Amino acid sequence: MRIALFIFTLSLTTATLAVASPLDRVNRETALCMRKIYSAEELAARPLQTVRSIAMQLFEQPDQKDHTVYLNLQIELTDGVHDAFMLCDRTNPGLRCAVECDGGGADVVKIGKDEHRLQFVNRGFMVSGGCGGAEEEGDIWLAATPGGDDAFELETATVCP
Fold first, then answer.
1. In this structure, how many other beta carbons lie within 10 angstroms of the beta carbon of residue 81?
2. Using one digit for the tens of pLDDT, what is the confidence trace for 46-88?
3. 20-156 classified as CATH 2.40.128
4. Which residue in 53, 61, 100, 123 could disulfide with 76, CB within 3.0 to 4.6 Å?
5. Contact 84, 99 (CB under 8 A)
6. pLDDT of 83-98, one tens digit each?
7. Which residue has the higher pLDDT, 116 or 134?
8. How would DSSP label each residue in the chain?
């Protein structure tokens, strides 16, 4: 009996020590907003990076039967602001997201034990345009350039894109 009580107490203690991911807060009632605005110094340190700011909103539809996560993305590049949309599946340790008709996508993962930051890992995706078959004028593909536009650390924000 004492052993069972000890194991039960230990499991409760371990559960309370687990660090929640910001992704755990995404559900049918709650959206999650994340953002990063790069300073001139940060951009100078990463000359291959074309993203000046990035903001994302993660949410589930209230009436959906599965737990697909939707991702709205707003990206400021050197030529202006662009919006992208992805559908995401929950994976371990985060989300695997894809642009519907054009392929490409990203992963969203937690950063260590931080409860307020996530990493957006670019796998290459269509930021603007697409869905027209052949490459069209105005299409913008955000390549996952190592040391450039490959990964972005975002912090929780109160305003969603």
1. 13
2. 999 999 999 999 998 877 777 789 999 999 998 899 999 999 9
3. yes
4. 53
5. yes
6. 999 999 988 889 999 9
7. 116
8. -HHHHHHHHHHHHHHHHSPPPGGGG-SSS--EEEEEE--HHHHHH-TT---SEEEEEEE--TT-SS--EEEEEEEEETTEEEEEEEEEEE-SSEEEEE-TTT-EEEEEEE-TT-SSEEEEEEEEEEEE---SSS--TT-EEE---TTTTSEEEEEE-SS--
